[in-house]
């Protein structure tokens, strides 16, 4: 069952930098990524169903960071639909931050569950975008860290159970699931992963377009 977006609905996107996309520097507050593409395509398809689009993504945020601002940035806005993409920054935190640690999947899932519970209680429709990692090649800079094949393998080992946690939470809460990791793996098989995310994490324009198209298939 798709989610029906009714006229006058408020739809919120939240998460980390993949959602943020310099939203505070944009006039509409949506940034340059998939939230903007979704809002634009929806407006083109459904001029008779105006929607208020909000973006509260913040670069670098993990589940624990979303928890700290959930009331003011999400719940107080009383959105009708909330779309969440979080987990990439929970992956490999110990490799990027000297004070970071390996976040167990159980801790990740418990925190994510605390985000979803009050939304479900309020009757908010949920779209969960699973975190993803594309198998790019070579060494890249991520902050002060250098990330190569070894680190990416560690990240993949860390991420997979967190993806499973998101899938389980989607089932638990009857949320729509956007299976982004599998989607990008399939797309990368024909073009190469860098086409969709040059650093394996942050989508290119084509990657954002793919996310937007997949998201729009979940709503009506």
TrEMBL record:
Ranges where the SGNH hydrolase-type esterase domain occurs: 13-210
Residue ranges that the Swiss-Prot or TrEMBL entry lists as coiled coil: none
MF terms in GO: phosphatidylcholine lysophospholipase activity
Source species, domain of life: Bacteria
Organism listed in the record: Streptomyces botrytidirepellens
InterPro entries: Ester_Hydrolysis_Enzymes, SGNH_hydro, SGNH_hydro_sf
Pfam family, any one: Lipase_GDSL_2
Protein name: GDSL family lipase
